[in-house]
């Protein structure tokens, strides 16, 4: 381990108490997508206390921010997530993600001048729904970044995590209300349209391609049993291994949506709720450096291959991975076998095991950036790829020492 990496690790461990306190504070006040006002403030205020220059409200998103330290030509992006799940709190452990990111940023700030890097923390809201990173990327917030990293909690350490492309849709049916007993013949039942669509989707499942999935809920089923439903709504996620397969699935699913309207004489519309999430593509070179660092922290040796690994769901980090080299490994916590999006995992995300993972993840992220900065070939490739992507635009990440 180089002396520079050791200094970065010591800087992380020196603020371990701050990181755990932040993780627990976020956990105790969960906030939903685009509503993470307290959470964004807690994360950015701690970074400001560490000497970072914080810019709130980037990309016209009130709960997004950037925090920058250093002036090197290699800009290392660290993504902080902090949104929670409806009714389940931090059952995906985003409180831990934010704390790990802050810890890695603090460690890298200590050695930024030695490494010739700029540390850029991106406060990214609305990962669960809304695609905050996609909105930020479209607004140019990621333009100055050469590589991006984050670590997600899970049931076990997993290096080569993958995710599926996702379409987030709302399907709305409009019929004609009437008295369900006295004049049912006058109505056009939007609830029946919804039922026909769901039956059609259920039958479609038999013919889905490998990696394709669809699942949803009824978000509006009508007003009352004695009123023929005039308005109903489905919320559906369509998932696939890549964009091409997702386009195929959407075409077939939209036939099912149309069938509901055709069978009942209703009209319908399909609206996009969140931007399309792309599949995650992790960078093998950065993953190798992360794996070495996480094993050095005393965590179990984990395989690097994808064989037999179930996709972790979908994430807007996938879109970032189509722009630049990215890592998004999983770090394991003792959840009693519960997985993310289960209420037991929410409790585990503020446990002693989670607290250890916060520090271990932060140390490993910082060490990965050290490797990228000090490996001449990798550093040059990152800088050249960034220049090609941005057309050689000058860095504007700012400076704060």
TrEMBL record:
InterPro entries associated with the record: Amidohydrolase (IPR017439), Bact_exopeptidase_dim_dom (IPR036264), Peptidase_M20 (IPR002933), Peptidase_M20/M20A_hydrolases (IPR052030), Peptidase_M20_dimer (IPR011650), Xaa-Arg_dipeptidase (IPR017144)
Any GO CC annotation of this UniProt entry: cytoplasm
Hydrolase recorded as keyword: yes
Keyword hit for Hydrolase: yes
Membrane-spanning intervals of the chain: none
Biased composition (Polar residues): 390-401
Superkingdom: Bacteria
Residues covered by the Peptidase M20 dimerisation domain: 168-257
GO biological process: folic acid catabolic process
CDD domains per UniProt: M20_ACY1L2-like (cd05672)
Ranges for region Disordered: 380-401
Entry keywords, A to Z: Hydrolase
Pfam families, per the entry: M20_dimer, Peptidase_M20
GO MF entries: dipeptidase activity; para-aminobenzoyl-glutamate hydrolase activity
Biased composition (Basic and acidic residues): 380-389
NCBIfam families, per database record: amidohydrolases (TIGR01891)
Record-stated family: Belongs to the peptidase M20A family.
Protein name: Peptidase M20 domain-containing protein 2
Organism: Williamsia limnetica
């Amino acid at each position: 381990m180089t002396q520079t990496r050791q200094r970065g690790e010591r800087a992380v461990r020196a603020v371990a108490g701050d990181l755990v306190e932040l993780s627990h504070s976020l956990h105790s006040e969960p906030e939903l997508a685009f509503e993470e006002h307290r959470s964004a403030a807690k994360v950015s205020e701690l970074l400001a206390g560490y000497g970072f220059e914080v810019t709130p409200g980037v990309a016209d998103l009130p709960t997004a921010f950037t925090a920058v330290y250093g002036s090197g030509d290699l800009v290392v992006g660290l993504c902080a997530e902090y949104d929670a799940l409806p009714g389940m709190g931090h059952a995906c452990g985003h409180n831990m993600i934010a704390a790990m990111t802050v810890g890695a940023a603090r460690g890298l700030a200590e050695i930024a001048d030695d490494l010739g890097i700029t540390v850029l923390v991106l406060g990214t809201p609305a990962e669960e729904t809304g695609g905050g990173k996609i909105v930020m990327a479209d607004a140019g917030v990621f333009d100055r970044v050469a590589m991006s990293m984050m670590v997600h909690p899970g049931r076990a350490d997993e290096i080569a995590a993958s995710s599926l492309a996702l379409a987030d849709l709302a399907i709305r049916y409009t019929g004609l209300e009437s008295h369900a007993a006295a004049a049912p013949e006058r109505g056009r039942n939007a609830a029946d349209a919804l039922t026909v669509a769901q039956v059609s989707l259920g039958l479609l499942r038999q013919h889905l391609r490998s990696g394709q999935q669809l699942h949803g809920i009824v978000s509006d089923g009508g007003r009352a049993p004695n009123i023929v439903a005039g308005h109903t709504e489905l919320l559906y996620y369509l998932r696939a291994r890549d964009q091409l397969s997702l386009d195929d699935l959407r075409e077939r699913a939209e036939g099912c949506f149309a069938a509901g309207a055709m069978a009942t004489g209703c009209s319908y519309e399909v609206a996009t709720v969140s931007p399309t999430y792309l599949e995650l593509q992790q960078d093998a070179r950065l993953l190798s450096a992360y794996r070495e660092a996480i094993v050095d922290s005393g965590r179990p040796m984990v395989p690097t291959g994808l064989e037999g690994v179930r996709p972790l769901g979908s994430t807007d980090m996938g879109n970032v991975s189509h722009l630049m080299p990215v890592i998004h490994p999983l770090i394991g916590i003792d959840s009693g076998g519960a997985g993310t999006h289960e209420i037991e995992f929410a409790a585990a995300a503020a446990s002693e095991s989670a607290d250890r993972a916060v520090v271990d993840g932060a140390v490993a992220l910082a060490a990965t950036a050290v490797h990228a900065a000090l490996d001449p070939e990798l550093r040059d490739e990152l800088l050249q790829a960034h220049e090609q992507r941005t057309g050689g635009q000058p860095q504007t990440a700012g400076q704060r020492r």
